[in-house]
Amino acid sequence: MDIIYRGQTVQTVGALPEVGSQAPEFSLVGPDLEDIASADFAGRRLVLNIFPSIDTGVCATAARRFNQIADDLPNTTVICVSRDLPFALNRFCAVEGIENVVTASAFRSTFGEDYGVAMANGPIETLLSRSVVVIDEEGTVVYTEQVSNTSDEPDYERAAQAVMDA
């Protein structure tokens, strides 16, 4: 899939999972350096807020906004996923008072490839493209968005509505 990063066309390694398909299982690294697996959230709705790096303005804004939204989504866990090290994610959350989302790093997993969001070329090759995936309690993908320009924010309202409709 083509996306734009700082005016340059960049490809991702694939495409997001299709709506109606089973979400790929994942294993990520949590704040305590322990594995976080999709199976850990069985029976819950998931919002995967996927982004290149918490150390950029738009990524930080999205994490803050999903932190606000998460509190109003019943039986839902919002997971903020990047290839940042857990130390950077922890630092950001501590400074910002982020407590309603789970942060997870894909730095030692195939998450980016499995979800089709790893950038295949460009200056930040291998980082994750800005995307949102909503998964229902049965593990079915009910909403996806890959933001076409990494400088744009995701559609928070559509993602939240997809959770409520699931």
Automatic annotation (TrEMBL):
Pfam families cross-referenced by the UniProt entry: Redoxin (PF08534)
Ranges for domain Thioredoxin: 17-165
Active-site residues per Swiss-Prot or TrEMBL entry: 59 (cysteine sulfenic acid (-soh) intermediate)
Single GO MF annotation: thioredoxin peroxidase activity
Keywords: Antioxidant, Disulfide bond, Oxidoreductase, Peroxidase, Redox-active center
Record-linked InterPro entries: Redoxin (IPR013740), Thioredoxin-like_sf (IPR036249), Thioredoxin_domain (IPR013766), TPX (IPR002065), Tpx_CS (IPR018219), Tpx_Peroxidase_subfamily (IPR050455)
The organism's place on the tree of life at top rank: Bacteria
Disulfide links within the chain: 59-93
Known catalytic reactions: a hydroperoxide + [thioredoxin]-dithiol = an alcohol + [thioredoxin]-disulfide + H2O
Quaternary structure (record): Homodimer.
Additional notes on this entry: The active site is a conserved redox-active cysteine residue, the peroxidatic cysteine (C(P)), which makes the nucleophilic attack on the peroxide substrate. The peroxide oxidizes the C(P)-SH to cysteine sulfenic acid (C(P)-SOH), which then reacts with another cysteine residue, the resolving cysteine (C(R)), to form a disulfide bridge. The disulfide is subsequently reduced by an appropriate electron donor to complete the catalytic cycle. In this atypical 2-Cys peroxiredoxin, C(R) is present in the same subunit to form an intramolecular disulfide.
Record-stated family: Belongs to the peroxiredoxin family. Tpx subfamily.
Function statement: Thiol-specific peroxidase that catalyzes the reduction of hydrogen peroxide and organic hydroperoxides to water and alcohols, respectively. Plays a role in cell protection against oxidative stress by detoxifying peroxides.
Annotated protein name in UniProt: Thiol peroxidase
Protein's organism: Flaviflexus salsibiostraticola
